[in-house]
Write a structure and sequence with these properties.
It is a single chain. The protein is mostly helical. It has one domain. The chain is built from 3 helices and no strands. Helix 2 runs antiparallel to helix 3. The longest helix is centred in the N-terminal third of the chain and has 38 residues. The protein is elongated.
Amino acid sequence: MKILIEFLSLRPVFTRCALHAIWYVYLVATVLQLAQYVMILVSTSQVYSQGLISHYSISLLPPFLFALAHLALVRIFLEMALQFIDKRTVNV
């Protein structure tokens, strides 16, 4: 309960560590999601290599672009939060 109270009260040291942890967890989740897309692409290419005609093509470009955009947005928001926390600690 104490950890939850410290996080919700926005104590600078705990919040900075928590934001870094959130960033790394989000980064790992994005990498895992992209790995799933790659596995889907590999599995469908094996099916197509057996002589089945593909009616559509799978491209990895949109998932990679969305993943990069999401990572950039999350990183920007976390940096903004850290700057806000740093400014708040200097003023106190």
